[in-house]
Amino acid sequence: MTPDIVIVPHTHWDREWYLPFQRFRLGLVRMLDEVLDTMAADPGYRFTMDGQLAALEDYLEIRPERLGEVKGLVAEGRFAAGPWLILADEFLCAGETLIRNLEYGMRGAAGLGGVMRVGYLPDQFGHCAQMPQILRQAGLEHACVWRGVPASVDRDAFAWVGADGTAIRTQYLPGGYGNAVALFSGPAEALPDRLAAFTETMRPWHPTGPLLAMYGADHSAPAADITAAGLRVATLHDYVTAADPAAAGLPAVHGELRSHARANILPGVISARMPAKQVMARAERVVTRYAEPLSALWMPGSTAAAKLLDMAWRRLIACSGHDSITGCGADETAQQVAARIAEAEQIGQAVVDMVSASLAGRAARDTLVVVNPSPFPRTALVLADLPESRAALFAPDGGQVPSQRLELAPTLLDETVMDDLTRLLGRIHERELFGQEILSWSAAEDVFTIVVGRHATTGYDYADLRSAVLGHAAARPGPWRVRTCAEPVVTVAAHVTVAPLGRTVLTSAPPSAKAPHSPGWARPDAGTLDNGLLRVAVAADGTLSLFSAGAEAHGVGRIVDGGDAGDTYNHAPPRDDALVDAPVRVEVEHVCTGPLVSVLEIRREYAWPAGSTPDARSEAVEHVAVTTRAELRAGEPYLRLETSFDNRCRDHRVRWHAPLPLPVAESFSEGQLAVVRRGLTGEGGGGERPLPTFPAEGFVTAGGLAVLLDQVTEYELTGGDLALTLIRSVGLLSSNRNAYRDEPAGPQLPTPAAQCPGPVTVRFAVLPHSGAWHEAGLPRLAEEYRHALLAVPGAGRAPVLPGGEGSGVSSEEAGTSFAVEGAGVVLAALRERDGELEIRLVAEHPVATEAVIRGPFGAARRADLLGTAGERLEVAGGAVRLPLRPFEIATVHLTRAG
């Protein structure tokens, strides 16, 4: 036996990548069949299943008869399972998705007999700043990584210090997760030479103690006879947890790991297949910030909601895989990822619909129920379709709500000639016609008119209508013109105030007087917008100037198109690139003129090269119209921007540029429960160009200009500008010859869908500001921008819910709400868990702060990320006070009063 080397047999299993999931699963079944057969024949054999439980679940779905065998091996410690459900990309999903991923994985592995207690992150394309805290709060004392480790690390272990100061001992894998894959290739008699060569390579990283030999590779099983060689064989859990978890004396690395020095981090995945990033963020918001908290508050105990949310979370987590949401898989894989994301969003929306129906059923018709998803009071716009005769909204205190008419819907829904009027009866289903309820009918000469509306407010009897139709048909045989008209409906924007995580009920009625304006109403002028907080002017080239108190920015919104001869992993411009940033024509039009919403539409036409090669851009051009909708709302200090165009070009990158008002050496971006500081360059030294393109999830700010985001977006500080990637079109999964990367990152397969042809729409908001990011209140502004108030028309009747469950909240609970206060304190999640409310907060603040949770609860206690009970917290005056370190994640369980 060679005690100086520990062999860890394992596999790295990409569930989907250059093949779709089901085709890879066939290989997974063959591989694990072989591994389990080997373990049955050889008691000394050990195996590590890649740190993700989902692959094992995929196998057991096909081989349920081997469940008992797997459980026995896991319980014996011979088969290492978990701790993750999926090996996720850490920058392309929300921080809460990472937490649920770990929760599901550890719970599932424990159900099989035991959890590998190592935060194994073998192939992720870099690591987020909060990962040490996430792992430690789940009870793990060790991490293990490969990519992203900086050049300053010169040994096989370091202290990884998270955003909040939490440190975790981290095993580094020099040479990658397959550093010993060649040990057992070749003649058996040459094994001692191969072991000696491995020792010579790895001993400088680990001067004393046994060396870690990761024997495994992508989609393959280790050799079955390795124990016969007399080597020490172990699981990764056994090797790593044998080390002292104390990180004292180890070199410290702070924050995120995104260095290119030792391994490729493939940063182009941030902008590959951008539409997938959009729908992923939207689905996460629906589930995390609407479906889950609203069902916990307004439908406690709903088993239907709990089951649906479990289904939604499993789909979200599955889509977060590092070869899934990244967009670096085959087109078939991308299609299946998109379908699962859509399902997650639809399931989440179904739960929102359940809650909405419950709330609407407790409110009278001709009312509007408005719900605030934020943990602080909000005054914001909601859109509602109201009958023109009752197009004013009144608050519970009787005061008229400031509002603005936006659009009058067409009233004629259908007009047709029937040779026999009685045919009309075949269209009518009791009260319903054209998806609405019948309000009235009339006949004049040869025209029969039916008026429908969202809700009937008068008595209706189908027998009366039938009698009228039969009577008119008998009195005037022959053709009739049948008109179906909608009650005149107007879309109204209303400025509504709602309590934190609460609701208010507005009543629609005829206006009593001219609706009052809110402070800071949005008014347009020639080429400008102004709401008292922000003034916007449009230049001749279609760019914007923004002016606020103490800050301004100019030239904002330049569109820059450049070539991209790279692939889904790495952007690479053609050798002779040609940037296009000057429009050939610009038009500006006011399309909405206030007082609550004022909109300018900026239409710019560009001549973009139709394609690119590694050498140059094409001479042929496409004329592309880029439309930017600049929207300023009352009370908002930022300008909402929506940029749209039809992407008819190939192999190119389109970016939105804004010159920074101040000289800059750093940026700050929010993502995965932290605000991360980054410089102007990336650390190189490895096999790829260290482009300083970075991900941002909630916002990015630099040089006095901030952008609020509703999806993970790639950005760069370049030439004094902040540049955001709108779309990156490429046609290869991985190029064998990428100018910005030495080695292929995968097979060279065509990915025509990764060109993202067709309509492109990207939304964000921009504001100039003075002071630091936290002084400008960017976390709260990002919360407001990303989470719109929810508006539901009152139905006046209780809904029928799945399983015969109750209809939810009682009318006496109308004022119930939970509030969270504290500088920089952000709500990450709120859900029902074991009959209690679980709330997760993050201190997105650079100095210590205090969170105050207020609400109708009688007891409170701290908990870890897995829900394990911690210290009890004092509840005084209906409030809990919680001191927080900078960027600390805090989970609290609240017991409802009574």
UniProtKB/TrEMBL annotation:
SUPFAM superfamilies referenced in this protein's UniProt entry, alphabetically: Families 57/38 glycoside transferase middle domain (SSF88688), Galactose mutarotase-like (SSF74650), Glycoside hydrolase/deacetylase (SSF88713)
GO terms (BP aspect): mannose metabolic process; oligosaccharide catabolic process
Family of the protein in this entry: Belongs to the glycosyl hydrolase 38 family.
Domain of life from the UniProt record: Bacteria
Protein name: Alpha-mannosidase
GO-annotated molecular function: alpha-mannosidase activity; carbohydrate binding; metal ion binding
Keywords per UniProt: Glycosidase, Hydrolase, Metal-binding
Keyword Hydrolase belongs to the record: yes
InterPro entries, alphabetized: Gal_mutarotase_sf_dom, Glyco_hydro/deAcase_b/a-brl, Glyco_hydro_38_cen_sf, Glyco_hydro_38_N, Glyco_hydro_38_N_sf, Glyco_hydro_57/38_cen_sf
Pfam family, one: Glyco_hydro_38N
Enzyme Commission (EC) number: 3.2.1.24
Source species: Streptosporangium album
Domain called Glycoside hydrolase family 38 N-terminal: residue spans: 5-219
